[in-house]
Every structure is written in structure tokens, then in C-alpha cells.
Amino acid sequence: NATVAEHMQTNEDLKALVASLQREIKILENKILEIEINQQLQEKQREIDCMNDQVAQLTHQNQLLTDELAQQKALYAQRRQMNDDLNATRAQQPQTVVDLNATVAEHMQTNEDLKALVASLQREIKILENKILEIEINQQLQEKQREIDCMNDQVAQLTHQNQLLTDELAQQKALYAQRRQMNDDLNATRAQQPQTVVDLNATVAEH
């Protein structure tokens, strides 16, 4: 009877161990989920910060270009006003055709300079846009690589945890099999000894 009770207690212990292991696995799964969510939030925050930095840089570059273009427009307006004033003055004075052609040529040169400046600014904007695109692509690649590295680390940790749990469960199964074999040997020994019907019925009922 003591042996049977001991084996019943062993069964209860094993059930309790299995329940404990299942709870531990659930806790680990929840922890992994929490880590993944936090990692995703951090990645998104880094993306937002990076985008904000890029927007600030672009805003600054655009402001510089806008200021420079405004200066060129102001200079052009000033020269045009000077030209208008000069034309008004010359209309009141005798002026040779050579002088007039020189003034026209100067303004034509100014227009060419402005056109060249606009083309240069457009090229600079295109270069900046390409650089921003390259930065965004590299950032995305780095983010994906960090996600892959994090996932690999988590898989390695889970594999290690599962191996530990598997080893512990195998040890418990071996211990249970050993105790069950001892119980079977004890029952076989008792079967060869005189035993009353009452004792046999009590043992069967207890099992």
C-alpha cells in the first residue's frame, strides 16, 4: 500500500511539474511577444526620428535656396530698375546706337547668368533628392538587418530554453519509469507470496 501511495504521489508530482513547465513556457512566450512589440516600437521611433532629421535638413536646404533665389531676384529687379532709369535718362539725352547696344548686351548677359544659376540650383536639388533617397534605402536596410539579428537572437534563446525543458522532462520521465519498474517488481514479488483475498481486493480497489 505504501508503494502504491508513493507511485500515486509521484504521478501527482509529475502532473504538477508538467503544469509548472507549461506555465513557464507561457510566461516565456508572453515575454517574447513583449520584447518583439517593444523592438518594433523602438524601430518605428528611430524611423520617425530619422525622417524628422531629414525633413529638418531639407527644410534648411530649401530655405537657403529660397533665400539665394530671392537675392538673385532682388538683384535682377535692381538692375532692371537701373536699366529703366537709364533708358528714361537716355531718352532725354542724345545717345549713340553703340551705347544702347552695350546696355542691351549687359542685360542679356545678366539674364544668361540668372538662367545658369537656376540650372545650377535645379541640379543641386536633384543631387539632394537622390542623396535623401539613398539615405532612406540604407536606413530601411539597416532596420531590416537589426530586425533579422534580433529575431535570430530570440530564436537561439528559445531553442536553448526548449532544450533545457526537454532535458528536464526527459529526466522526470526516466525517474517515473524507474519508479514504475520498481513498483512492477514489487507487485511481481508479492504475487509469489501467500496473500489473502481481502488484501488483494483492497490493493485492486486502492489502484
What's this, in brief?
This protein has one domain. Helices cover 95% and strands 0% of the residues.
Major sheet characteristics: none
- Average predicted confidence as pLDDT: 81
Number of strands: 0
Morphology: rod-shaped
Structure description:
With 207 residues, the chain is an all-alpha fold. The protein has one domain. It contains 3 helices and no strands. Helix 1 runs antiparallel to helix 2. It starts with a helix and ends with a helix. The mean pLDDT is 81.
Helices and strands, with pairings:
Layout: H1 2-92, H2 97-191, H3 197-206
Helix pairs in contact: 1-2
Region (Disordered): 188-207
Keywords: Coiled coil
Biased composition (Polar residues): 188-198
Features:
207 residues, 95% helix, 3 helices
